[in-house]
Design brief:
This protein is α/β, with parallel strands linked by helices and 249 residues long. It contains 8 helices and 9 strands. The strands form 2 sheets. It has a 7-stranded parallel beta sheet, sandwiched between helices. Strands 1-2 form a two-stranded antiparallel sheet. The longest helix has 19 residues. The termini are far apart. Its EC number is 3.2.2.n1.
């Protein structure tokens, strides 16, 4: 239903907080469009509807994680093999974090994420997986005790930071690098405070650290102080000590 016959189209229209004028005035009212049973279902794919989905993801995530104890997020490659030293390191880190009194949060997938969740579960701690909808990824690994699947990367990233007191970053690919630099940027810009970041595996991270120092910092694109935003280690006990030392529980 639109504007009744014989009635002039208004020059101004208010739809909640939105103001429309002249050619942007829409026929009908918001209630009318809501209650109208006719029409296609294309509206479920519009941006306003996506906002509701995004909101619901935040609500579900906050609700599921609000009562977590102090936690550390562990990142790493989904392609890490179960028989590799990196996988074993992930298990040891997950176990050590629980023994230090922390829950373990990962992306919930296979590889390094599964390893950290496995260690947390074996230590009888809280093992959390925050999954993401991808066309080629598996579901949450079997060692996750609390799992939340997200449609949107940015909602998932918010949960990693909001409910963790620090990051341990195992060797990983583009997704791991994305999460690492997101955290570094948040600390650098003081969007979060007292947020330790530990890179585990000095041989793997050496090239990146050298590039940051010799190219980024040397070229004036970052400061020497920014190199203090993270620590690099090959020792599980040191990694846990570094990532938890500033946390008050």
């Amino acid at each position: 239903m639109g504007i009744p016959e014989g009635v002039a189209k208004p020059e101004e229209q208010r739809l909640g907080p939105v103001l429309r004028r002249r050619d942007q005035v829409q026929p009908g009212t918001t209630d009318q469009r809501l209650l109208d049973t006719e029409g296609d279902s294309e509206w479920v794919h519009t941006d306003p509807w996506r906002v509701m989905r995004i909101q619901s993801e935040f609500v579900e995530g906050f609700g599921a994680l609000a009562e977590l104890p102090s936690a550390i997020s562990v990142f790493g490659s989904a392609r890490t093999k179960p028989d590799s030293p990196e996988y074993e390191a992930g298990v040891r880190i997950g176990r050590a974090l629980v023994e230090a009194g922390f829950a373990v949060i990962t992306g919930g997938g296979p590889g390094a994420m599964e390893a950290a969740n496995k260690g947390a579960r074996e230590a009888k701690g809280v093992s959390v997986g925050l999954g993401i909808e991808l066309p080629f990824e598996q579901g949450l690994n079997q060692h996750v005790d609390i799992g939340v699947n997200f449609r949107y990367f940015f909602v998932r990233k918010t949960m990693f930071v909001k409910y963790a007191q620090g990051f341990v970053v195992l060797p990983g690919g583009l997704g791991t690098l994305d999460e690492l630099f997101e955290a570094l940027t948040l600390v650098q810009t003081r969007k979060v405070t007292r947020f330790p970041i530990v890179l585990f595996g000095s041989a793997y991270w050496k090239g990146l650290v050298d590039w940051l120092k010799d190219t980024v910092v040397a070229g004036g694109k970052a400061s020497e102080q920014d190199l203090l935003l993270f620590h690099v280690t090959d020792d599980v006990e040191e990694a846990v000590a570094l990532v938890t030392k500033e946390v008050s529980r």
